[in-house]
Design a protein that fits this description.
Elements: E1 3-7, H1 11-23, E2 27-31, H2 34-43, E3 48-52, E4 54-55, E5 58-59, H3 60-70, E6 75-80, H4 85-93, E7 98-101, H5 106-136, H6 144-156, E8 163-166, H7 173-182, E9 191-195, H8 201-209, E10 210-211, E11 223-224, H9 226-229, E12 234-238, H10 245-257, E13 259-260, E14 269-270, E15 274-279, H11 283-288, H12 294-300, E16 303-306, H13 317-331, E17 338-339, H14 341-349, H15 355-369, E18 374-375, H16 382-386, H17 390-395, H18 401-419, H19 424-431, H20 435-445
Parallel strand pairs: 1-2, 1-3, 3-6, 6-7, 8-15, 8-16, 9-12, 12-15, 17-18
Antiparallel strand pairs: 4-5, 10-11, 13-14
Bound molecules: adenosine-5'-triphosphate and magnesium ion.
Length: 456
């Protein structure tokens, strides 16, 4: 709840404001001279100040200047008598939020405080959630395809272009969709997700477009659809490849006309949404076999983004492991655990059919179950061991031992550099090599510092 200070030499006014604010649950204090008030502000953090413009020891406008320079975030509301409205207007020009004229309207006081507290809440939510979410949905990875994907996302996110994200299970399609939203101009608005595979087709339409009361048995009240909810924001149609043909036809009509009606209704509704879609199906094949409409495909596939499977970007494995270990340790209140080299090798050799999700789940499980500071091969489940036996390894990514060693060295150095914000001295120390040698390795492997999406 907001903390409020009232500085006015008329004690009656102070008490009246304080009482009404306290009745509404705010915490309020009073002072009767500028000096007392200023000292009080220095002692306690206040959110809102009611400041009388005529005070025995200071002119209000000068006082406002001092207050704003000491406490720039404090919202100041000027209290002015009849004779000095002009001064009050001047005060709002100098950073006061608003002014009140005497005799005071208690209703207006409450209204102003409500506006201010709502605004402060909103600002702090936005500040927190936006940077948290961008961090949460940052795409971890250093491989070429991931770096390219990140660049593409940074480029298209601020536009309004419709994006179709494809990739195998667990590659991070939803993660990408959320990041696009967070980096877009619509970030302040909603991100509405509809999972086309999880909702029975009879209900999908009402989910998307809403329904009117009585439009079908069970429609007891009017319901707003997700497309309407998403006005100003983003709609994410997940698993669009699983949508039935009849729903596809309706969706296409809506996307073409830009308007829709609720099920059972006839009022035409407009909504300004950006459409992101995802699927793990090959839609071209689905079109050939008659399961997906070609016209819808072209409509929604304005910018295609492909998230590659993890087995095609194994150099991301060390940094992903480290990221998920850090996350799991902090979530479970554990000291940061390490990974032994043989375990890392095992993770690198595995093909990860369930992609990043499988890796993440396994890392979380191992972090919780392993009692050692450094997790080792014996903490790994059997499928990981059998998945990397020599035969499979040779049949899969066959390469000379020298290449394998170099590949591993490159990834390992990169991992350490990333973990230490590319601090060369620190990384060299951890790797137990000379700084100059590390510089040579960086150059030889063409390692590059990637700025990441967080600073867009
Ligand atoms: N590059 C990445 N960096 C960090 N986390 C990632 C990355 N890729 C995926 N993840 C995480 O892995 C998990 C799976 O990702 P997500 O749900 O986005 O995959 P998906 O492609 O939508 O999967 P599905 O096809 O099963 O719906 C999520 O917890 C996600 O946050
Ligand atoms: Mg998904």
């Amino acid at each position: 709840m907001a903390k409020i200070l009232i500085i006015d030499d008329e004690k009656g006014i102070c008490t009246a404001i304080k009482d009404i604010l306290e009745d509404e649950g705010y915490s309020a204090n009073t002072a009767h001279t500028f000096t007392d008030g200023f000292n009080e502000l220095k002692k306690t953090a206040y959110d809102i100040l009611f400041l009388d413009i005529w005070l025995p020891d200071k002119d209000g406008i000068d006082g406002l200047k001092d207050i704003k320079s000491y406490f720039p975030d404090l919202e100041v509301v000027i209290i002015s008598g009849h004779g000095n409205i002009e001064n009050a207007v001047e005060a709002t020009r100098r950073g006061a939020y608003d002014f009140l004229e005497k005799p005071l309207s208690l209703e207006r006081i409450l209204l102003i405080v409500k506006h201010l507290t709502d605004r402060m809440q909103l600002m702090s939510d936005l500040r927190e959630s936006r940077s948290d979410l961008i961090k949460k949905y940052d795409i971890i990875g250093v491989s070429k395809p991931i770096v390219e994907l990140k660049r593409k996302i940074e480029k298209i996110a601020p536009t309004n272009a419709w994006v179709m994200i494809t990739g195998e299970n667990g590659t991070g399609k939803e993660h990408v969709a959320r990041l696009i939203h967070m980096l877009s101009r619509r970030a302040k608005d909603v991100f509405v997700e509809i999972n086309c595979a999880a909702i029975p087709s009879e209900l999908l339409e009402t989910e998307m477009f809403g329904h009117e009361k009585g439009s079908f048995t069970g429609a007891h009240s009017q319901k707003m659809g997700k497309f309407e909810e998403a006005d100003g924001g983003t709609v994410f149609l997940d698993e669009i490849g699983d949508m039935e043909l009849s729903s596809q036809a309706k969706l296409l009509r809506v996307l073409e006309s830009n308007t829709f009606t609720r099920v059972g209704g006839n009022t035409s509704i407009k909504s300004d949404f950006r459409l992101l879609t995802a699927t793990n199906k090959n839609l071209e094949e689905e079109i050939d076999s008659g399961n997906f409409r070609e016209d819808l495909y072209y409509r929604i596939n304005v910018v295609p983004l492909v998230v590659p499977p993890l087995r095609e970007r194994k150099e991301d494995i060390p940094i992903l492991m480290q990221h998920f270990i850090r996350e799991a340790c902090s979530l479970n209140g554990l000291e940061l655990k390490k990974v032994s080299l043989p375990l890392l090798e095992l993770f690198m050799a595995f093909d990860w059919p369930g992609n990043v999700r499988q890796l993440k789940n396994l890392v979380e499980r191992m972090v919780v179950l392993s009692e050692k500071e450094t997790m080792d091969v014996d903490d790994a489940p059997d499928f990981l061991l059998s998945g990397s036996d020599d035969e499979k390894y040779e049949a899969g990514n066959c390469c000379a031992l020298k290449d394998a060693k170099e590949g591993f060295e490159k990834q390992f150095i990169l991992q350490v550099l990333q973990a230490n914000d590319w601090n060369i001295s620190q990384s060299a120390k951890i790797l137990e090599i000379e700084r100059t040698y590390l510089h040579r390795k960086i150059k030889a492997y063409g390692l590059e510092k990637f700025k990441g999406t967080g600073n867009v």
